[in-house]
Amino acid sequence: MLVTSDLREREETASARWSRFHPIVTGEDYLDSLRNRDIDLYLFGELVENPVDHPIIRPSMNALKATYDLATEDPELATAESPLIGRRVNRFLHLVESAQDIVMKNRMQRRLGQITGTCFQRCAGLDTISVLHSITYEIDQKHGTSYHDRYIEFMKLAQANNIIIGAGMTDPKGDRSKRPSEQDDPDLFMHVTRRTDTGLYVTGAKAHMTGGFNSHWICVMPTMNLSETDRDYAVVGLVPADAAGLTYIYGRQSCDMRAMESGDVDKGNAKFGGQEALVVFDNVFIPWEHVLMDGEYEFAQEMVARFTAYHRASYVCKTGLGDVLIGAAATVAEYNGVENASHIKDKLVEMTHLNETIYSSAIASSYEAKPLASGIYMNDAMLANVCKQNVTRFPYELSRLAQDIAGGLMVTLPSQQDFENEVTGPLLKKYLKGRSNVPVEHRARLLRLIENMTLGRNAVGYLTESMHGAGSPQAQRIHIHRIMNIEKKKGYAKGLAGVSAHASAEKK
Ligand code: SF4
Ligand code: FE
Predict the structure, then answer these.
(1) Which of 34, 58, 305, 384 is the most exposed place for a label (fewest CB within 10 A)?
(2) pLDDT at 46
(3) Which helix (H) or strand (E) holds 33?
(4) Of residues 30, 233, 297, 315, which has the active-site annotation?
(5) Mean pLDDT of successive 10-residue stretches along the chain, which has 508 residues
(6) Which residues on neighbouring strands pair with residue 287, listed in sequence order?
(7) Does the beta carbon of 362 lie inside 6 Å of ligand 1?
(8) What pLDDT score does 53 carry?
(9) Closest-lying ligand 1 atom to the alpha carbon of residue 461
(10) What φ, ψ does residue 401 adopt, rounded to 5°?
(11) How buried is residue 42: exposed, middle or buried, by Cβ count under 10 Å (0-12/13-18/19+)?
């Protein structure tokens, strides 16, 4: 138990916190920014000494590095002019001020999916800052608070330093039949433990935090609607990733030990991977300048609804992964000499149709964006939920078709070491040959990539994250039910059928 004097030592000012950050320009600067941080990160029951060079962790950092590299290589796509600081900033830190900004966000997300073949971990933070613009404004309008100014000041520094903001949204939730304030253990939802003249303290945990450790700051926010008894749970705050009281516990992923092996063939995608972590907050201090909600519980539901509208369309990222998978399946078919078979062509058409159906719902949602009271734009919630519902299903069918085209060799292929062995290597190169002009290794690499995306490490990003990220499938169905306006639709039908309200009353 920490005594008050220990806690006081955590009370850093906002400027002291910012002083630890230096502007990031290149992808290499980003990797350097993650070195030598004083952070407790556990993986396989041990504190990790050098996370940046850890073979399991580094691919997840490379995926975020790609968001910086793309800003240099394609500034039109991955940067935008920021009125806050009067220069171009990374699009992941840009406030969406038009429908076109959200469309461009989606295009960038698809491109990064094509580049990385996995989750590049930066979109939940982007969607969070979009939500906070409008929510802080609306809380201030109602309560006379000054959250919006604090938010703007933070965003200016965030843009100038080109940092990554992680979204700490999902609480562990404990007994789902109980509200936050009813839980036997109050820490199962993040809550305020004390308030002082300089700020407040929070305790709790944020689960499945995408890219949590790879971020520079974490924005904590409520995970669900709250009532008056949950007032201490209605907290939004900005926390540096190395704040005192934080512990990171790295999530295991399928086939993660392949990253520890020598050679890159069996890894399938040796360069890029995702990251999820459980981040525990033990009395973490947040100075008032970085508190953006404290007790205004009635805004929690709308905040979550707006976040999900943004983030469920951000799952357009998976169309970039779909492009990779379709390309891998088509290449394997070519290496096998079956690219002209009509059923192969048909399967590739089906895969493309599914992938573009996801894209169409996301991009339509963004084109339908409307301004909120603060001036920021929000994409259409119905189409965003339809997009995410598509994403919970179609990547599974795309994966089934890719595995169908790949054939069983994808899961019976011997290891890279067997290919390199002087006895087995020549045998494998003879008997696993497809088209004579294609090296066997190329065939193996493509098969391993499909394995990686549909069964291995990046199946986390392509499949299970598609299922549960931004809310599990039922969450979208509940939202669709809430906004599908069935009465209006019944009215259309009754009007055409000649069943007026008056006529039906008469018949009774
Ligand atoms: Fe971005 Fe997609 Fe990863 Fe979410 S799942 S952070 S939208 S890449
Ligand atoms: Fe996500």
Answers:
(1) 305
(2) 97
(3) helix 27-33
(4) 315
(5) 82 95 96 97 97 98 98 98 98 98 98 98 96 98 98 98 97 95 96 97 97 97 96 98 98 94 96 97 98 98 96 98 98 98 98 98 98 98 98 98 97 98 98 96 98 96 95 95 96 94 54
(6) 199
(7) no
(8) 97
(9) 5
(10) -70, -40
(11) middle
Dist. CA 469–CA 282, nearest whole Å = 25
Same domain, 285 and 353: no
Question: Domain holding 11: CATH number?
Answer: 2.40.110.10
**128 a known binding residue?**
no
Same-domain status, 364 and 471: yes
> Which among 290, 242, 279, 249 is positioned nearest to 33, based on CA atoms?
242
Distance 72 CA to ligand 1 centre (A): 21
For residue 234, which amino acid is it?
A
Residue 93 near residue 125, CB atoms below 8 Å: no
pLDDT at 34: 98
Residue with tokens 């997300």: 109
The atom of ligand 1 lying closest to the CA of 122 is 6
Q: What is the pLDDT of residue 212?
A: 95
Is residue 492 a part of any domain in this protein?
no
Residue 287 and residue 244: Cα distance in Å, rounded?
Answer: 13
Q: Does the residue 30 lie in any domain?
A: yes
For 462, phi then psi, to 5°, come to -85, -35
Judgement on whether residues 290 and 322 belong to the same structural domain of the protein = no
For residue 497, the one-letter residue type is A
Residue 502 is predicted with a pLDDT of 57
Amino acid at 281: F
Range of the domain at 418: 312-483
- Alpha-carbon distance 394 to 354, whole Å? 6
Distance between CA 379 and CA 372 in Å, rounded?
A: 10
Choosing from 223, 290, 296, 317, which is the catalytic residue?
A: 317
Instruction: Give CA–CA dist 259/269, Å, rounded.
Output: 10
List the one residue out of 131, 201, 209, 137 whose CA is nearest residue 172.
Answer: 209
Indicate which residue's Cα is closest to atom 1 of ligand 1.
Answer: 123
**Element spanning 277, H or E:** strand 276-287
What one-letter code names the amino acid at 206? K
Total domain count for the chain? 2
> pTM score, two decimals?
0.96
| Alpha carbon distance 59, 500 (integer Å) | 62
Residues 334 and 394 in one domain: yes
CA 80 to centroid of ligand 1, rounded, Å:
20
Same domain for 131 and 34, yes or no, is yes
Catalytic-role residue among 311, 451, 454, 462:
311
The CATH number for 449's domain is: 1.20.140.10
Which pLDDT belongs to residue 1? 66
What are the backbone dihedrals phi and psi of residue 285, each rounded to the nearest 5 degrees, phi first? Answer: -80, 140
Write b or e for each residue in 221-247: b if 16 or more Cβ atoms lie within 10 A of its Cβ, otherwise e: bbbbbbeeebbbbbbbbbbbbebbbbb
Q: Which of 309, 153, 129 minimizes the C-alpha distance to 221?
A: 129
